[in-house]
Q: What sequence folds into this?
């Protein structure tokens, strides 16, 4: 059985991010042949073309980690009906220079959570559009999760069997996409 590398990008820089909790709980739903990393994005400088000649080490670390992954899962909050600036900044760094765009051809999943009733629906649509323009292969389907204090238990697992089943099906669909697209 092949091993697949999955970079899970948490689009939040909060210490107690509910999206990090969601990402970690969803990672537990992956099969054993998926190795997970969480590329750091909160230390990336704001994208500036003037820095391209001497990329900061944090940018090189981030783009190398995403480039080495077979797939990317983005788990994000929604800020003002869009994606957070810290996440957009990471996407911009990963897309430059154009001939080294780390998103092109990469199997990508998008989900996220917020206390609001529609989860991160509008922000995810913006992200889907951006990643599509950059050539990522974005998983079909939608996973907008309303966060409630008891969504994830102290053990890191989902407490509600219905939510767990829904997200397991979403993860299984992503695993199928990754195994079809990854070059083995």
A:
């Amino acid at each position: 059985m092949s091993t697949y590398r999955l970079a899970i990008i948490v689009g939040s820089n909060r210490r107690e991010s509910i999206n990090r909790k969601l990402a970690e709980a969803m990672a537990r739903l992956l099969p054993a042949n998926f190795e997970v990393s969480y590329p750091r994005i909160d230390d990336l400088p704001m994208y500036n073309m003037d820095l391209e000649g001497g990329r900061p080490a944090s940018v090189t670390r981030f783009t190398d980690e995403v480039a080495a992954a077979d797939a990317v899962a983005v788990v994000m909050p929604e800020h003002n009906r869009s994606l957070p600036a810290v996440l957009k900044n990471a996407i911009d760094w990963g897309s430059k220079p154009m001939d080294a765009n780390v998103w092109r051809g990469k199997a990508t999943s998008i989900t996220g959570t917020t206390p609001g009733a529609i989860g991160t629906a509008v922000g995810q649509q913006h992200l889907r559009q951006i990643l599509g323009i950059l050539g990522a292969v974005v998983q079909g389907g939608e996973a907008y999760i309303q966060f409630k204090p008891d969504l994830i238990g102290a053990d890191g697992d989902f407490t509600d069997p219905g939510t767990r089943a829904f997200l397991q099906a979403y993860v299984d669909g992503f695993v199928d996409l990754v195994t079809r697209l990854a070059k083995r």
Summary: The first strand starts at residue 4 and ends at 10. The chain has a mean pLDDT of 96. Strands lie at 4-10, 34-37, 71-75, 107-114, 137-138, 144-146.
